[in-house]
Design brief:
Elements lengths: L7 H4 L2 E7 L4 E6 L4 E6 L8 E6 L1 E6 L2 E7 L5 E7 L4 E8 L1 H5 L12 H10 L6 E14 L16 H6 L14
Antiparallel strand pairs: 1-2, 1-9, 2-3, 3-4, 5-6, 6-7, 7-8, 8-9
The structure holds 3-(4-hydroxy-3-methoxyphenyl)-2-propenoic acid (FER).
The site of 3-(4-hydroxy-3-methoxyphenyl)-2-propenoic acid (FER) has 11 residues, from strand 2, strand 7 and strand 8.
């Protein structure tokens, strides 16, 4: 948690846990300079997890980072990380169908891309639900870039507590044996 961020390289390969002020908890990993992985532990789509999501990742000024992407569901996400202050501002733009049928998206999305694309055609897009929130970062880890062990299993209740307590990952962000 004491890491100081100044360059884009400081940010890439970093793994975060954070809680939005509305209570939604996420894990998020800057996998490399163009993809992100995440797990969702709270909120409308708790249980959802995704790897290899293409994203635009830039540093705005030293230590402040902006990440934006659009998902196969049609959900759009824009995140501003201020890791030296342990804060994030995130805005998520949900198509109407995700609000109406969140359970469709609660899965390991990578294995169900066809289902997401079918649902976004079948159901309503508008009006979108905009969720703008600040978040508090509760954990920062240096996992290194292109580490496929960081986000590689489904979320479970208590997972983020296990991670913060050092019971989940080893020093290389591989899973400790159960
Ligand atoms: C975030 C990380 C991922 C976030 C949203 C997502 C707004 C994705 C959500 C989704 O796919 O439903 O910090 O916050």
């Amino acid at each position: 948690m004491n890491k100081k961020f100044a360059t884009l390289d400081d940010f890439l390969g970093t793994y975060f846990i954070y809680t939005y002020d509305n209570g939604w908890e996420y894990e998020w990993y800057a996998h490399n300079d163009h993809t992100v992985d995440y797990r969702i532990h709270g909120g409308m789509v708790a249980g959802r997890w995704v790897t290899g999501q293409e994203a635009n990742i830039v540093m705005l000024v030293p230590g402040i980072y902006k990440i934006a992407w659009t998902e196969p569901t049609g959900t759009d996400v824009a995140l501003d990380f201020m890791p030296n202050d342990h804060r994030i501002n995130g805005t998520i733009f949900f198509p109407k169908w995700v609000q109406d049928h969140p359970e469709i998206t609660v899965t390991y999305q990578n294995e169900h891309i066809d289902l997401m694309e079918a649902a976004r055609e079948k159901y309503e897009t508008y009006p979108k639900l905009v969720v703008p929130e600040f978040a508090q970062i509760t954990y920062i880890g240096d996992a290194g870039q292109n580490n496929t062990d960081v986000i590689n299993e489904a979320p479970y209740a208590g997972m983020t507590d296990d991670i913060r307590a050092g019971k989940f990952y080893d020093d290389n962000y591989k899973r400790l044996s159960k």
